[in-house]
Predict the structure.
Amino acid sequence: MDLVYGLVDAEVEEISRQMSDSGFTRKPTARGLRARLEALLDVGPPFFARLDFESGESFYVGRINISDSNGDPIVINWQAERAAAYYSSTVENPMGLHSKTHFEIRDRQIVSAQREVYALDDADGGAMTAIPDSKLADIEMRQGAGMRMSEIAGRIRKDQFEAISHPPDEPLLVVGAPGTGKTAVGLHRLAYIMYGNADLRESPLVVGPNPGFLSFIKAVLPALAHTAEYSTAAGLHGGAAPARSEELDLERLKGDPRMATLIAAAVDNLKKVPSEPLVVRLPRSRVTLDVETLRSIFEDVDARGKPHNDKRADFRYELRRHIENVYRDRVGSHGPSRGTAISDLTTDVMRASDLMRLVSSTWPSISAQALVRDLLGRARTLDQLGASVFRPDELELLYRAPAPRLEDEEWTFSDLPLLDEAEALLSGVSAGASYVVLDEAQDLSPMELRSVARRIRKGAVTVMGDLPQATGEWAYEAWEEVFEHLVPGQAEGFERVGLSIGYRVPQQILEIARRILAVAAPHEEVPEGVWYGSDTPRRIECEPRNLVETVVQSVKDLASLELQRQSGGELTQPAGDVTDEEPDAELTAVVTPSPLVGPVVEAFRSAGIRVARFDEDGIGDCVTVLRGIDSKGLEFDNVVIVEPSAVMQERTLGHNVLYVAMTRAMKRLRVVHSEPLPPVLGDWTADPQRLADVESPTLDADRGVYASLVADDIQAYVASMLPQLPLDDLVAIYHLVRRLSGAPPRDLD
């Protein structure tokens, strides 16, 4: 440990010395050194495992390569080929390993180590002598939401690694229910791809559901010595700042792929076929191009597969070329000789006012913002261009009175994909991303998917999502519908990898989530959680006038529970005191309807509790208040849902929103309400024993692994999990549960 950290400190000092050089920024290695320094300075441990091979070779595995002064590797990058055995080895295929050890490191000290031995005991006829404990480390050792996502490399499971290491030369879809690790897989896949493919490191792009989510995940790639650009789908168009959202029916209409047809018609409508001859006055002559010639030029240019403004430039160039040719043929030997005064002639032609007027009237120049503003702000134009694809009531909904000036126009979030579509047709949008990772793709409208598609080069994309978690205004029945817009022409030409094991959400919470999913997506199944927590989800009913105060008190009570757990049952400070929490305190999300966000934030501030408003501050270090739709992709130790009926009513897919919000919890769930619960939760108290049964009376929360299962149930449970888990995982779980429940060891048939 001292050796590794000594090497890290020495390299940090050397890079810092090089960066202090005045000419550092001009060096070709500057960018790489900055990335290396950022990775070295990351506070995560430099290694997390040791591999010991039957051949006698041993080395450590970590986030980045670390070598000694002679250049000999001490720690190898987890993305290196030799490190694959850490993730992919099994009892049946140890991949040459004698053993592997997983370490937990905190404050530069090893605090625990779990060793997995693949050696065989001849005395037992070849039976395994050790249970693969390291495979259970991330089940037994429950980490809170404060664990940084950049530390996940050491906890990647075999099924996740298979998705991460999938070949990068075709579109990949990673699907999975809440807590299966889709986001971590997508980001680590991007790092894995960049590590082995230098041409994909140039300009990778990560697209996520909202700015707060992107802030949450931004530390992952730098900690793995990689960088990327981050954006929401709407934010890919950088030419306008959205000022507001709009009504859901209008939001859905603007996301409809028919809007692409309407915008294309508006761009096409800009052009005017020449109807009069062009007369250009030049020195010593006047050149006339007749209507037939002009139309021929127009049709030739219009047939080129280029954006509008590029065609405008081509049209101008072709006119100039024709005029110069006619002029030379007419003037002949009496005019400028060939090869002389050409630049003067070209200048005269390009300055001709008649030519400029023709170009401007035939192929007018316009910005994307002006085009969309004029389209939506002119009812007659909307009717003329949209009658064939929209109903009259839809066109009426699309119309809005334009602002007096273009710079005063208030754009909405659903306008941005329209502006991007217009920009692509007018000036083109470069597929500048070397590789694209798209998270929560099920929430994007077809128009947003088209925006992302324009940045993808030849199918270089990994898509993550879960259709039952869709909270946007577009509900897709199948992923082929998404890929139809995202990778045109390859709607069925993508590989699909499913993650079926829920590592994050306790089984108690999944039990309630299952009720919601039965309504939101009856054909889908909630994954089986791999651990039971020690806390029962609870609902707290109160009077409307006491709602906000009850929310604050519920968060205080949650903090007291955690303090009691940490102290082994003895409170070390007054109950409810969350104002003096340490920086790594539990993270609590308070999910509220939009109108309550402000009042709830103010109530926490008045109580002296650290609070962040998600839409302004992102995720805080104690309490974060946010809307249900904004909780997508995030994780918290505790979740408090306020007035779930109102949370659901804010979106068309309200059940999905509630399902998403509830499954953000890693430890505890509370529902605070003054209004009646939605029907899907109405029987919460009808069967209290069912929820109580999933508590873990024999273990504390950090070791709550299948603790409520009695020995007689073990074999039945293992059998039910056979379709979902690899055999070595099932064997390990079986032995662990028997050990924890006090049952004697027994071989599995």
Observations:
- The first strand starts at residue 49 and ends at 53.
- Residues 520 and 655 are 5 Å apart (CA to CA).
